[in-house]
Design brief:
Largest sheet: 7 strands, mixed
Shape: globular
Distance between the termini: 34 Å
Number of strands: 11
Strand order of the largest sheet: 1-2-10-7-8-9-11
Low-confidence stretches: none
Structural class: alpha/beta
Radius of gyration: 21 Å
Number of helices: 22
Strand content: 5-15%
């Protein structure tokens, strides 16, 4: 079983008692997909609660359907935007899910909840006596620390020292411990090493929720993110034959699972995995450091279904940083409004692009150009967080590169966006996919204790990946039973 749903009755009973004392109810996958099924009593509480408040009721805001307000919102349609063609330079339409209106301002709060909730409901994590460890390159540990705080359990957040100041400053307000590991976004092994160190020191007193190997992460995106995209496509009236592409950075491998859901629904779709050109692990078995925060590197995540990936898009981190300035500096906004002709609404929507969201969009642009997509073709990607998460980078870039002028804005618009090329885009043959899949061996078999047999099952066993989606219903049953005991007199 790829997700441990065996029940530990003694620990489960303690978790029930803790949630009873704190008045905590756990949302199901069904409610995250369709929040119209959330009880009216919960919705009444949400109407008085801020989006980022450390309040257990905000567990029910782990959905793409939150009203786009920071205080007291309800539920509505899926939060998404269309990227203006004046920016993409391609004929096809590119849409982005918007992650800003999750608690913590990033969708990773969903992946962490999907790891934590089943462990609580089964008793595989003792919320009273164990610490939850969240190894991350950024937003995942923020989501894990936040959900831990909502549930009244202790957390340890681990992330690279060179991540943005905004992440560290906020984490200090909610996490029990914050550990900065050496290096930048691409230094994932150092995060794993710290987990091994903590395991040796604290053993049974901690549970490590490693997003790169936990299939609960895959399951959340397959079930919740995939359903959100399908809902938008149906709302837009897009014909099945015109659903052409899904692009997402490799990251933990979780967000790519939404592509698996889309491919199950629209078999003709192509899935692109994005990574930084400065660390071309999938593209060239390469390595290096880069500045696209939150997309993971120098390994292939255990939960990445490589056999379902159609192409790799390597994105230059300088393009991402330049576009971030274009979207946020006064001179850039002035240029986009007056010279490019973006509307006030389109200018306002630029706030939804964090650095990784920009990277995802560039992957979608490369994909549209590579496959020569037309006006009626549609691609989807993800704005994982928003611009507000990286404002300190503007000062750093100004200090390093100088003032951002309208001339610079024109150069970035023309070069990084309109003339984004298909260079460093690789369509995967069967054996190219196998090459990428085989890279898992070095991280997961040699370093992290996985087995050679399971690695082969991921590639050759047709039922391996198909066995994961049905587990959402099983987890919902466990959560509903758990909640019933919490609510019982």
């Amino acid at each position: 079983m790829l997700i441990n749903l065996n029940v530990n009755p003694e620990v489960r009973a303690r978790n029930v008692q803790l949630c009873k004392e704190k008045g905590i109810i756990l949302p199901t996958f069904k409610q995250m997909v369709d929040p119209s099924t959330v009880p009216a009593s919960i919705k009444e509480k949400l109407a008085k609660t801020g989006l980022w408040d450390v309040n257990p009721v905000n567990l029910f805001r782990i959905t793409w359907h939150n009203e786009p307000v920071m205080q007291g919102g309800g539920f509505g349609g899926v939060n998404f935007i269309e990227v203006p063609k004046q920016l993409t330079g391609v004929k096809a339409r590119i849409f982005c899910l918007v992650g800003k209106y999750f608690p913590t301002g990033a969708h990773k709060v969903g992946a962490t909840y999907s790891c934590l909730a089943p462990a609580l409901a089964t008793g595989n994590f003792d919320a009273k006596n164990q610490q939850a460890v969240w190894p991350s390159t950024g937003n995942y540990c923020r989501g894990g620390a936040y959900n831990s705080a909502l549930l009244g359990c202790q957390s340890i957040a681990i992330l690279p020292a060179e991540m943005s100041a905004e992440r560290f400053n906020w984490l200090k307000t909610v996490a029990g411990e914050v550990i900065a590991t050496p290096g930048c976004e691409s230094n994932v092994k150092e995060i794993f090493d710290k987990c091994h160190e903590l395991d040796a020191e604290r053993g049974k007193h901690i549970v490590i929720f490693n997003q790169f190997e936990q299939f609960e992460n895959y399951l959340w995106h397959y079930t919740v993110t995939g359903a959100a995209i399908i809902e938008v496509l149906e709302k837009l009236g897009v014909k099945a034959e015109n659903v052409r592409g899904y692009a997402s950075s490799t990251g933990s491998g979780g967000t790519l699972a939404a592509g698996d859901r889309l491919k199950d629904t629209f078999p003709g779709i192509k899935i692109a995995a994005g990574e930084a050109k400065q660390c071309p692990t999938l593209l060239r078995n390469g390595f290096g450091g880069h500045r696209i925060e939150g997309i993971g590197d120098k390994h292939v995540p255990w939960i990445h279904n490589v056999k379902n990936t159609d192409m790799i898009c390597a994105i230059d981190d300088q393009d991402c940083m330049d576009i971030y300035r274009l979207f946020n500096e006064p001179a850039g906004i002035k240029y986009l409004k007056e010279s490019v002709g973006l509307t006030d609404k389109q200018i306002e929507d630029l706030q939804y692009f964090g650095i990784s969201g920009i990277g995802n969009t560039l992957s979608a642009i490369k994909m549209a150009k590579y496959y020569e997509m037309e006006e009626d073709d549609v691609l989807f990607t993800i704005c994982t967080d928003s611009a507000i998460m990286y404002k300190s980078r503007l000062e750093e870039l100004t200090a390093k590169q100088g003032e951002f002028t309208e001339m610079e804005a024109a150069k970035v618009h023309s070069g990084a966006l309109l003339h984004q090329s298909i260079q460093d885009a690789l369509e995967l043959t069967y054996y190219e996919r196998l090459r990428v899949h085989n890279l898992k061996y070095y991280t997961w078999i040699e370093q992290q204790g996985k087995t050679y047999e399971e690695l082969n099952r991921q590639w050759y066993d047709r039922d391996y990946w198909k066995s994961i989606p049905p587990m959402a219903a099983k987890i919902d049953e466990l959560i509903e039973s758990f909640n019933a005991e919490v609510l019982a007199d």
